Amino acid sequence: MTLPSRREFAGAAAAAIVAGHTPAAESKKLVLIAGTPSHGPGAHEFNAGALLLAKCLKDLPGLELSVNLNGWPKNASVFDGAAGILIYADGGKGHPAIQQNRLEFLTALMTKGVGLMCAHFGVEVPKDKGGLEFQDWIGGYYEDAWSCNPIWRPEFKEFPKHPIANGVEPFAIEDEWYFNMRFRPDMKGVTGILTAVPSDKVRDGPYVYPKGPYKHIQEAKGRAEHMMWAVERDDGGRGVGFTGGHFHNNWKNDGFRKAVLNALVWICKLDVPRDGVQSSVTDEEIKKNLDPKPTKK
Question: Which residues 6+ apart lie within 8 Å of 52 measured at CB?
Fold first, then answer.
């Protein structure tokens, strides 16, 4: 895969990069959508993160990649033949999936069984615009004033028997791990993948925004929370939510990275290797393709 130069990267508008093996009849196409620049240096590095994930997946047999930088693809043909979609971008009212007629567009794709994974801020949509769809498509979403977003260090010690967990070893890492998602009623069809118990101190806040604490979060002290989850939909598609991904350096962590790579393979209905997707990320690679952002003084 050829990466864009610094100048090309900085000026790209929804640039698409296609990588992977030559498409064959049995190949599965994964469309990665990276959001526009956000936050300070080293945080919400959606473009660099998507390119790193593509680098880690580019040699996986049977997978074709379409990497789309700096926002929603300008050309809808990007989605032709897609087996799975990743949205790694800012969410809330500005979520790219709820702009214009994109909810309707995605509904048509989901009805065909296309997989969907949303990462970090990308799991948040307004309750009245995208909430029900996200519950259906990926099993749950971040609801403003219901979910919370502290920066903390969960310990992921045990994993379910699920392809996404293949080869993932216990790990702990500090990130802006959202929790208390607005899941489907009774967690119907939802399987927790990365699950941990926040400490009482974490529940008491402060959260990133609003700083909290929220009474209903405090009242759930001692309860395990899902920071990554998966669903198999009635339409045949698969969905995954992942609340980490705030700090770009975390992609160097093997467990963190493998869980996400496995999930991307899984939503495309490819077999996840028994030991998970093998990959590595160097210090040099983690510094590549970062968005041009002003350094705080």
Answer: 251, 281, 285, 286
- Mean pLDDT (whole number) for 129-157: 98
* Domain range list for the chain: 6-286
What is the edge-to-edge ordering of all strands in the sheet holding 82-88? Answer: 16-20, 63-68, 28-34, 82-88, 115-119, 238-242, 225-232, 190-196
> 89 Cβ partners below 8 Å, 6+ apart?
33, 34, 35, 36, 46, 71, 95, 96, 121, 122
pTM for this predicted structure: 0.93
Beta bridge partners of 175: 152
Task: Note the pLDDT of residue 22.
Answer: 43
The answer, yes or no, to whether residue 14 has pLDDT greater than 50, is no
Grade residue 5 by pLDDT with cuts at 50, 70 and 90.
very low
Q: How far is CA 289 from CA 277, 292, 295, in A?
A: 23, 9, 16
pLDDT of residue 9 exceeding 80 = no
For the cut 70, the answer to whether the pLDDT of residue 25 exceeds it is no
In 106-246, which ranges are E strands? 115-119, 140-141, 151-152, 155-156, 171-172, 175-176, 182-183, 190-196, 225-232, 238-242
201: buried, middle or exposed (CB in 10 Å: 19+, 13-18, 0-12)? exposed
**Can you tell me which residue has the tokens 């983690």?**
286
Please give the class, per CATH, of domain 6-286: alpha beta
- Token pair listed for 182: 């607005």
